Amino acid sequence: MQASTPVNRHHLPLTRISSFSCRRVSSASRWRSTVRMGLKEDGPSLAVVGVTGAVGQEFLQVLSDRDFPYRSIRMLASRRSAGSHLTFEGREYEIEELIPESFAGVDIALFSAGGSVSREMAPAAVQRGAVVVDNSSAFRMDPNVPLIIPEVNPNAMAHITLKKKGKEGWLIANPNCSTIICLMATTPLHRHAKVVRMVVSTYQAASGAGAAAMEELELQTREVLDGKQPTCKIFKQQYAFNLFSHNAPVLSNGYNEEEMKLVKETRKIWNDKDVKVTATCIRVPVMRAHAESVNLQFEKPLDEDTARQILKEAAGLVVVDYRASNLFPTPLEVSNKDDVAVGRIRQDLSQEGNHGLEIFVCGDQIRKGAALNAVQIAEKLL
């Protein structure tokens, strides 16, 4: 649920972001509650696929935080996790093995179990009438599958409704985390002055590679400080006290897959095949939340004061831009927050006539960059 926000929330110091971003309640306290606010007889039937993973766990946290209505929920994972139990909102659930029959009677299925699982199981869920919101890259560039950021292009899913008896469901793709964070900040400006070229440099946290990468970063940090050789299982090189090019496979054009996702997904979401996008994606030793430096070139002039006001009024954004005190967004301050933070808003001096801007964006990869965006999509179906 949204915390109450003062009128001047965008002018609060960086250290007070938590006072106006969506309130986070620890799973330990919230899920043990005997009052299950989301459980409603007239709500949809849910399934969470990949429930034991970092994003799967965040799905549950977001559903609980937002009091998402549901009449039932199925916890689905691999055979290895099947049979174990978890407690959610005061009720104990047995984790079930993911099979096609798991989706019988399911209205909405939230998927975060990897592309190969989605390619196999998402069609099975759709065939059984579920609306699938998939967090993998499996269907993002399928022209028949809408790629949705609710604050950006909700009209692209306007034709999708919850199933009617005997009818097939639908498939909706959740964009890549870097794309979500980037377009949350750039779309309001794009609507005003039309972006013709965008240069993005990302600084991506361990959370983007999952819980195991986060654990390895913590382990490596301890090992390096103790003078030991760092354990490198998730990544091929030392992560602690280091940074390196994103670990996605490098393509023949010299870009890696993560960078090309930003290029292709932006064009699809904006429905603009002509917008020029280039990206460089870097892994940095940050536990959670990504940061991005974004350079924009516009078709129409846009001065920084107008841009700042546009961003202050945009849904899901908070402006943190204090030049005098050199305070701007940081991954630490946006971790576990719903809002995407934007700052370092300034004119690009290399472009004439106010046709260019520079901004710096931070957003929680697991929260808004994955689970929250997917749940917001599901909310559009209610």
From TrEMBL:
InterPro entries: Asp_semialdehyde_DH, Asp_semialdehyde_DH_beta, NAD(P)-bd_dom_sf, Semialdehyde_DH_NAD-bd, Semialdhyde_DH_dimer_dom. Gene3D superfamilies: Dihydrodipicolinate Reductase, domain 2 (3.30.360.10), NAD(P)-binding Rossmann-like Domain (3.40.50.720). It catalyses: L-aspartate 4-semialdehyde + phosphate + NADP(+) = 4-phospho-L-aspartate + NADPH + H(+). SMART domains: Semialdhyde_dh (SM00859). Keywords: Amino-acid biosynthesis, Diaminopimelate biosynthesis, Lysine biosynthesis, Methionine biosynthesis, NADP, Oxidoreductase, Threonine biosynthesis. It is an enzyme of class 1 (oxidoreductase). CDD domains: ASADH_C_bac_euk_like, VcASADH2_like_N. Homodimer. Belongs to the aspartate-semialdehyde dehydrogenase family. This is aspartate-semialdehyde dehydrogenase.
